[in-house]
TrEMBL record:
Pfam families attached to this UniProt entry: TonB_dep_Rec_b-barrel
Subcellular location as annotated: Cell outer membrane
UniProt main location, coarse: membrane
Domain TonB-dependent receptor-like beta-barrel positions: 36-344
GO biological process: iron ion transport
Name this protein carries in UniProt: TonB-dependent receptor-like beta-barrel domain-containing protein
Gene3D superfamilies linked: TonB-dependent receptor, beta-barrel domain
InterPro entries with a match to the protein in the record: Beta-barrel_TonB (IPR000531), Beta-barrel_TonB_sf (IPR036942), TonB-dep_rcpt-like (IPR039426)
An example Gene Ontology CC term for this record: cell outer membrane
Keywords: Cell outer membrane, Ion transport, Iron, Iron transport, Membrane, TonB box, Transmembrane, Transmembrane beta strand, Transport
Membrane topology (UniProt): Multi-pass membrane protein
Species name: Spirosoma telluris
């Protein structure tokens, strides 16, 4: 794969930002009444080349026991060309400098900052499965995974561009489970897994910019089950999952006193602790050629946090969503007419949330210049 991505990002502060800027700076801006606008422009170009080769196979050790293995060799080369230019407003030869809160000059169009991210990695998997009976199979599996390094191309306040590159992510996953199929109409599977991340890549919408940061150590375990059953005109699919994932070591940013903050012990981003789904469907034959399908999908999602600091105000609280579908289709399935509804219970919940610095400290508030945006 060969790829080239170019981006231009522009941003400006207008005169209404003045009181916010003075709150952040903790001091009045000289001649601030004359301020109208400052901004920045960020330019980036990424050239990527990725090569990969893989192989997999299985070998029957006995009639019941089978060994499976696979490997993938990936070679990635990425090149970044980056520069950022601030646009100041001057008064008596001096810039107001409000844009300095968010950006600084990095390189130039003639001499951009160059960064490389090269990775050559072998990933692999190894597994054993054992047929306890013609209908039940148990298995154990290990997977070593990899996600390549990359670049943060959003705004930065570092004139050296130190944080432009984020590290590759590695993961070791261990899984035990079984699969069963007692007939053509019933199926039940279950699995228990443990996952260990090294330098997990997290996309963060926090502070004053969007960036990818590496969590040096992240671990957790989980379990999942699924069941499918069919009668003559009725089918039901049920699934359930549980996750217990935590950051073990994740230094990121500073507190209001300038001290380093480590989010060790916090829940992972967007990782609900519990999920449950049940989807019943009933088929009603009308004629020899036409059928009516009446189905529902009931999904329960446990609480999930939208930021690494686990702010409750923008967390997705536990919610149950009910969807429905009524359709008409011929036996051959070549066409269908359907009436469907989503969130029939009109459940209100936060899907995504972002935390930024903005606004003015309100009287009596414990914190200022912090705001949340939710969907």
């Amino acid at each position: 794969m060969n790829e080239q991505i170019a981006a231009i990002d522009t941003f400006s502060l207008q005169k209404d930002f003045l009181p916010v800027g003075e709150e952040i700076l903790g001091a009045p801006v000289p001649n601030g009444a004359l301020f109208t606008s400052e901004g920045y422009t960020t330019n980036s170009t990424i050239h990527s080349r990725s090569l990969a080769a893989f192989a997999s196979g299985s070998y029957a050790l006995t009639k019941q026991l089978r060994l499976t293995a696979g490997m993938r060799l990936t070679s990635e080369r990425r090149r970044l060309s980056y520069w950022q230019q601030v646009q100041n407003q001057y008064y008596n030869g001096q810039p107001f400098g409000l844009i300095d809160i968010y950006a600084t000059n990095v390189g130039s169009q003639a001499t951009p900052v160059e960064r490389n991210a090269d990775n050559t990695v072998l990933s692999y998997d190894l597994g054993l499965d054992y047929r306890l009976s013609p209908f039940i199979m148990g298995y154990a599996k290990f997977v070593r995974g990899f996600k390549g390094a990359g670049f943060n191309t959003s705004v930065t306040t570092d004139p050296e561009g130190t944080g432009l590159v984020f590290k590759p992510e590695f993961v070791n996953n261990y899984e035990l489970g079984f699969k069963s199929k007692f007939s053509e109409r019933t199926r039940f599977n279950a699995a228990l897994f443990y996952t260990d991340y090294i330098n997990k890549q997290e996309l963060l919408d926090q502070g004053t910019r969007v960036r990818v940061a590496n969590a040096p150590k992240t671990r957790g375990w989980g379990a999942e089950t699924e069941f499918s059953g069919m009668l003559k005109n009725f089918r039901v699919d049920v699934s359930m999952g549980y996750l217990h994932f935590r950051y073990i070591d994740f230094p990121f940013g500073t507190d209001e006193a300038g001290n380093p903050v480590n989010y060790a012990g916090n829940h992972l981003l967007k990782a609900p602790d519990f999920t449950f789904s049940v989807a019943p469907e009933y088929t009603l034959p009308i004629t020899d050629q036409l059928r009516v399908f009446l189905g529902m999908n009931i999904n329960h999602t446990g609480k999930a946090f939208n930021d690494i600091s686990n702010s409750d105000i923008i967390a997705r609280q536990a919610a149950t969503i009910v969807n429905g579908r009524l359709s008409l289709a011929p036996r051959n399935g070549k066409w269908s007419i359907a009436l469907w509804g989503k969130n029939l219970g009109n459940t209100l919940f936060i899907q995504h949330g972002w935390e930024y610095d903005w606004g003015i400290k309100l009287p009596g508030a414990d914190q200022g210049i912090t705001g949340w945006s939710c969907i």
